[in-house]
């Protein structure tokens, strides 16, 4: 039971990342009909918002202290982050909580990026074949990767979780199992809760706000909504920007789990597109359900007991499940008739 619960937590953690990216992909496809292969790059850009914010607040002020000397007899250099020098304890708090605080930077940055991407490029491909959309957005993703590689280098850049949530929690002891039987990193649990909150927020926004209701109506019948005098295109642009924010926030909070580099977005993009297809193109609940389902299956497939019997199964389990599901249900778990069938 303890092994089962540990793998389940691992699967939910991975599934949260898959579901967040797939949710944004599905929002874009469901509203605009665009297959956006640059969506993984938005995840990457969000991660590097966290990196940039950390680099900014950890810029160091160097002071020569003549009263102290090094082992070689030279005056000692005292290095202090400007944030700490200027704001004292609050500056130390900013440095410690740089990852979650960088959300404040990531939200406006990703909104602007999403708006510029949709208005500057995506809108010109609304009525073009999906193959054209894939080619142009994939090309954009490669360009963004190279920009990040040029600015930040090719190596992963580790980001630290706040001190309060570093280390691991003894979940086994909390649940009445033997102490130390189920030990799980605090930050991964934070990420799981964060994913659930963002997903719930997106669904609540679409379900219970007037704006969301109009967007859902536009997803079902764009022409009729337009005939009612509603500028549905403007709302879809906002939805694209919101999808960019969702992907960016997923990237921000994932940085302490996996140090970001310039190709992290592409790694998640491929898996997330599989998630979208399995869940059903255009289905938001399907994307979320498939994200968590495939994350859990991948986690259990990575167990040594399973890999001893089926070597490498953890690398292909998602694709095997996708093949099986699409053979049984060609539209995916919750796909709608007519989507991608013309």
Quickly count the domains.
Answer: 1
Proportion of beta-strand residues: 5-15%
Main pleated sheet: 2 strands, antiparallel
Tally of contiguous helical segments: 16
Q: Whole-number radius of gyration?
A: 23 Å
- Rounded average pLDDT: 84
Give the fraction of residues assigned to helices.
55-70%
Q: Give the termini distance in whole angstroms.
A: 47 Å
Low confidence ranges: none
Regarding quaternary structure, what we see is: single chain
Secondary-structure-derived class: mainly alpha
Anisotropy-based shape: globular
Secondary structure tally: strands: 4
Keywords:
342 residues, two-stranded antiparallel sheet, 7% strand, BCAA_transport_permease, transport
Could you please describe the fold and organization of this structure?
- With 342 residues, the protein is mainly α.
- The protein has one domain (2-328).
- Helix content is 68%, strand content 7%.
- The protein has helices at residues 2-32, 39-57, 82-87, 89-96, 98-101, 103-120, 130-152, 171-174, 186-208, 210-220, 222-227, 232-254, 264-279, 284-301, 304-309, 313-328; strands at 60-69, 75-81, 168-170, 183-185.
- The strands form two sheets. The chain has a two-stranded antiparallel sheet. A two-stranded antiparallel sheet has the order 3-4.
- A hairpin with a 5-residue loop joins strand 1 (60-69) and strand 2 (75-81).
